[in-house]
Amino acid sequence: MATPRHLNNAPIHEALIDLRVRLAPDFDHEILKNAHEMVKEDYPKSETRLRGQVEFALAPDGTTTQKMAERGVHGYFFKTEDEKRLVQFRLDGFTYNWLRPYETWERFRDEARRLWEIYATLAKPLGITRVAVRYINRLSLPLPVNDFEEYLTAAPRVPDALPQGVGSFLTRVVINEPRKGFTGIIIQALEGIVDPGTITILLDIDASKETDFDADGVGAWRTVEELRNFKNDIFFRSVTDKTLSHNFMTDALAIGNFRGLRAGRGGTAVSAASQALDKILVGVLEHLNAPATQSEPLRGVLANLDELYERCSQPGWDGYDAMPITEDTYNEARELIALLPALCPPPDATPDPSGHVSFEWYRSPRKVLVVSVNGTKMLTFARLLGARKMSGAEPYDKSLPQSIVDSLARLYPQ
User: Fold this and answer.
1) Same domain flag for 378 and 391
2) What does the pLDDT look like over 209-263, one tens digit per residue?
3) Three-class SS of residue 331?
4) Rounded to whole angstroms, how far apart are CA atoms 332 and 302?
5) Number of domains in the chain
6) Same domain, 275 and 304
7) Residues 277 and 338 in one domain
8) Residues 71, 119: contact at Cβ < 8 Å?
9) Partners of 173 in the β-ladder
10) Residue-wise pLDDT tens digits, 296-330
11) Cβ–Cβ < 8 Å for 134, 15
12) Which of 18, 97, 110, 159 could cysteine-pair with 132, CB 3.0–4.6 Å?
């Protein structure tokens, strides 16, 4: 593990504080909309988030039919002009997001607390049910990497008798701290090449506690501070001092699926030809992508999927008779997001009582696309563009079905 210390140039890509609440059944969401007047000096951009639902039915002839329904307003997002900071006032809770460049925990926490007080004053929650602190770190490592264990204390291992070339990896571990009732979700993922001499690994740490906190928030915010310490402990125990000796922060875009990395010992990481190709690809991506790319929001969708799976993986998760989200469905949902183009607008991910995971792209009441997966490598979709409706089912494996590509292109024309 690395020696705990203050990092002047921490690898934090995004930080968030999240509080889930119970509101009165008759609460009017318009009250949250009015909060923009109270925060618009710092958060001038406003966005209404709607919740959609697709109902699936199996006809006697074996065909699948879908019906799309709008479930109303889910909440309001208020953003800074550069969209580096975002506050979410939702019917199920409050979230404050801070994208790079990150400053200090104290400023991040204090601003989140200030905005929470506004939310709590307006929403008057009956109780707080979950508190979480989440940090997504981007660890930039120099090539060649001969052994990931030089940088990660829980690095993935390939059996010695197998080829050691690693194109990608993704690990997810859930740990429990029984004394305080904390849960930690630790995700490590190889993101790819950021330039011909560097790779990036995502280290995503979600520290949370589910219990019944008092509505005044005093106990919840005390727990926020404790979860931050728990998160820091996970971070320093997950990396090595060698990792911390490098400059983590990078503004370059990642190129996924690099196949020249070594998981084991010995050998070189990249060939001269691969380095030349990577240099070309980096230049192409820098030309095609605006400074604020959609890769960050898509990573946010993956983060939401992790939380969704944790919350909905048991039967009856909705308090009634909902089917659980299975591991196959969770993995399939992550694979689907990974297949989306980097510039694709991020969808909203929602669980369905049938055990499906649905992704919704919503532009207006008459411009909606919903795609659902259930762990069978068969996705279903429903699209509404003006008066034209389209729905169907498509098998998929390693590529996005053309019907989904076409639907996204129609929904978001260039």
Assistant:
1) yes
2) 999 999 999 999 999 999 999 999 999 999 998 888 764 433 322 323 333 343 3
3) helix
4) 12
5) 2
6) no
7) no
8) no
9) 186
10) 667 778 878 888 888 898 888 877 778 899 988 99
11) yes
12) 18
